[in-house]
Write a structure and sequence with these properties.
Blueprint lengths: L19 E6 L2 E8 L2 E4 H6 L16 H6 L1 H16 L4 H4 L3 E3 L12 E4 L3 H11 L16 E3 L5 E3 L4 E2 L2 E4 L8 E4 L3 E2 L2 E7 L14 H4 E8 L2 E2 H7 L13 E3 L4 E2 L7 E3 L17 E3 L2 E6 L2 E4 L10 H8 L11 E3 L14 H4 L7 E2 L5 E2 L7 E9 L5 E12 L13
Parallel strand pairs: 5-21, 7-15, 8-25
Antiparallel strand pairs: 1-2, 2-3, 3-4, 5-6, 9-10, 11-14, 12-13, 12-21, 13-15, 13-16, 17-18, 19-20, 19-24, 22-23, 24-25
Bound molecules: manganese (II) ion.
Length: 410
């Protein structure tokens, strides 16, 4: 139990959690750990000798150096912070370093960004909607975690407005495309994994090395323009329909806080190749929620994903591609078997054919300008209770045109 007011275990941000992020102190970004609705300035704490992380925090403006420091430093820091935040004797020295959370700040430099497609239910739903009458799963799907490289430079922190993208789409029934604002703007509720420790070029990272490289978890909204995507994606996969923005939560939940959230998964059939075979085939039991303008429209279960984060890591390095500190890879849309468990509006409205009604009585198929979406999640905490993962939210701004092409016809 922490001495920090409001940091009870029931808050979801008690000492069993301790997610890392960045807080502004006097306008300057500082690496921080969250406790309740406060953030402890770790740059100040290390400078004062309260925390020793090999200089990972001292003078720092992000989590980059801490991410690179590796599991021994991560664990020692977590133990020390737990001590400081539970021992009432430490309060006089620590209390002055606690600050309000303030506006979200992107807590690390995103290196490369990869997005997977690891929910079988989502892949089947999208297959049926995009390729009706054909087998929903393509032949490779159960042999490898399908993925693509996204655009790291447009990963933004929760709260950042998302401008409706313009692009090429082919209106229904038309042979020729038009260029203009997307009319089928969607979300994808996902779970992202943040890489801390790099790997050597040419050396795959095995399924058993996951915890040596991956630091923690953030919620992800992989905003998707379905009309742009449907026209552009064959044969090379997603491109401009997704690269305009990807939102992440502001606080990274360390894997250590999720030690009690792993659940065994059913054996994969057909059996996977050796490099994807795990000592323990297990997934994280995160319970997601999706709110659309404040109305909860879905509750996707992460526990049922077909491919695990360890398998995704082994696959994305299976060709020897090196990891860098700050690499982010996301699970793919999290969808369960029920309509109320899907992680995209494409599925929720079945391609736009079945609108959903929000609490204010209005109906939606895809996102309108001004709409807000918030993805949240909880997970079992070590020793009982639940953690609350930092939410990821965003509001849609109207498309902005250029001098040559005004917004109305951009
Ligand atoms: Mn995605």
């Amino acid at each position: 139990m922490s001495w920090v007011p409001g940091a009870e275990d029931e808050s979801g941000f008690g000492v069993a959690h301790l997610p890392y992020g960045v807080v502004r102190v006097g306008g300057q970004p500082r690496p921080a750990v969250r406790i309740g609705d406060r953030a402890l300035d770790l740059a100040a704490a290390e400078s004062a000798g309260l925390v020793e992380a090999g200089g990972a925090f001292r003078g720092g403006t992000s989590l980059d150096r801490f991410l690179a420091a590796g599991p021994a430093v991560w664990q020692a820091t977590r133990e020390r912070l737990t001590e400081l935040l539970t021992d009432p004797g430490a309060e006089p020295r620590v209390q002055p370093m606690l600050h309000p959370l303030g506006d979200p700040v992107l807590p690390f430099t995103v290196a490369d960004y990869v997005d997977f497609y690891s929910s079988e239910q989502h892949a089947r739903n999208v297959g049926q909607i995009f390729r009706p009458g054909r087998p929903p799963l393509l032949p490779n799907w159960k042999h490898l975690p399908v993925g693509y490289h996204g655009r790291a430079g447009t990963v933004v922190v929760s709260g950042t407005p998302v401008v409706r993208p313009c692009g090429q789409r082919r209106p229904g029934g038309s042979e020729t495309p038009v260029y203009g604002p997307s009319t089928r703007l969607d979300i994808e509720a996902e779970v992202g994994f943040v890489v801390g420790v790099p790997s050597r070029p040419g050396t795959p990272v095995g399924v058993d090395r996951f915890a040596e490289h991956v630091f923690g978890v953030v919620l992800v909204n992989d905003w998707s323009a379905r009309d742009l995507q449907a026209w552009e994606y064959q044969p090379l996969g997603p491109f401009l329909g997704k690269s305009f923005a990807t939102s992440v939560g502001a606080w990274i939940t360390p894997l250590a806080a999720l030690a009690g959230a792993w659940r065994p998964l059913p054996a994969q059939d057909p059996p996977v190749l050796e490099y994807l075979r795990e000592p323990e085939h297990r997934g994280l039991d995160l319970a997601l929620t999706v709110h659309w303008n404040g109305t909860q429209v879905s509750a996707p279960p992460f526990a049922g994903m077909y491919w695990t984060p360890a398998q995704q890591l082994a696959h994305l390095t299976g060709n020897g591609a090196a990891l860098r500190t700050g690499d982010l890879y996301a699970s793919g849309t999290v969808s369960g078997a029920q309509r109320g468990q899907v992680g995209s509006f494409l599925e929720l409205t079945w391609g736009g054919a079945e609108p959903v009604r929000l609490a204010d009585g209005t109906e939606r198929t895809f996102l309108l300008d001004g709409d807000s979406v918030t993805i949240g999640a909880t997970a079992p905490a070590v020793g009982g209770g639940r953690l609350t993962l930092a939410e990821v939210s965003g509001t849609i701004r109207p498309a902005s045109g250029t001098a040559a092409v005004p917004a109305s016809g951009c």
